[in-house]
Design a protein that fits this description.
With about 140 residues, the chain is an alpha+beta fold. The protein has one domain: Lipocalin. About 30% of the residues lie in helices and about 40% in strands. The chain is built from 2 helices and 8 strands; from the N terminus they run H-E-E-E-E-E-H-E-E-E. It has an 8-stranded antiparallel β-sheet. A hairpin with a 2-residue loop joins strand 6 and strand 7.
Length: about 140
C-alpha cells in the first residue's frame, strides 16, 4: 500500500511541476514592447519588441534589426541565450544606441518580475539594469 501511495504522490508532484512550468511559460507567451531599458529613453517610433514563443524561443525587433534568441525559465529565474540579429545599419544614431543597449541588456537577464498580466520587468545579474515590458494586445 505504501508503494502505491508513494507512486501516486510522485506522479502528482511531477504533474504539478509540469503544469506550473507550463503556466509560467504561457504567461510569458505573446507580444511585448519595451517601455524602458535602464534609464534610456526609448524612441517612440522604433520601440524594441519581444515575442515569447511556446517552444522557448524569442523573436522580435530591436527597433532597427530583427533578432532571435532562446529562453529558459524556472520560477523567477530566466536565461536568454543564443541572441542573433540582422546587421542592417540604423538610420539614426539614437536608434543604433538603443539597439546596442537592448541587445546587451537581454544577454545579461537573470530574473523576471511580473507586475500584473500586462507588465513585466527583466533584471540583469547585478540587479542594476532592467528592461520594462508591456504586453501588447492580440
Amino acid at each position: 500500500m505504501k508503494s502505491i501511495t508513494s507512486r501516486l504522490l510522485i506522479s502528482l508532484m511531477v504533474l504539478f511541476s509540469a503544469n506550473s512550468y507550463s503556466q509560467q511559460v504561457n504567461s510569458l507567451v505573446g507580444n511585448w514592447e519595451v517601455i524602458t531599458i535602464g534609464e534610456l529613453t526609448i524612441t517612440e517610433k522604433n520601440k524594441p519588441t519581444l515575442t515569447f514563443l511556446e517552444d522557448g524561443k524569442i523573436a522580435g525587433s530591436t527597433g532597427c534589426n530583427k533578432y532571435n534568441a532562446i529562453f529558459e525559465q524556472s520560477n523567477q529565474a530566466v536565461e536568454i541565450s543564443r541572441v542573433v540579429s540582422t546587421r542592417r545599419a540604423c538610420a539614426q544614431d539614437s536608434v543604433m544606441m538603443q539597439e546596442i543597449a537592448f541587445l546587451n541588456a537581454i544577454r545579461t537577464v537573470s530574473q523576471l518580475e511580473y507586475h500584473n498580466d500586462s507588465e513585466l520587468t527583466l533584471i540583469n545579474q547585478n540587479e542594476k539594469l532592467t528592461i520594462v515590458l508591456k504586453k501588447l494586445e492580440g
